[in-house]
Amino acid sequence: MSGNGLRSTRRHKQLRVQFRQACEAEDRPCCICGLPIAYDVPGAIGDGFALDHYHPVSQRPDLVDDWANFRASHSRCNRARGAGAPQAGLGTLSRKWL
Ligand SMILES: [Zn+2]
Description:
Helices cover about 25% and strands about 10% of the residues. By secondary structure, it is of the alpha+beta class. The protein has one domain (about 5-80). The longest helix is centred in the first third of the chain and has 17 residues, at about 10-25. The model has no long low-confidence stretch (mean pLDDT about 85).
């Protein structure tokens, strides 16, 4: 089952705005690549913010509006990861030593 419809609800859009503001206040980095997110980019493009679901909506549609399941990510990283991809990138902050 596709989770796309779940992400377009009014409730989810409100949560996404609130979550983005919370992440911007903390200047939270991308959960996938660990680099800073360009919060001044308005849309979900390139280095701009995208809401990532730790448990993909395609697998856990019940968690689509669960704040604890939200992660900050780059739009491009989120898109590259795709729905249902494994969580392999989350623990590997290989650029930390740079
Ligand atoms: Zn990233």
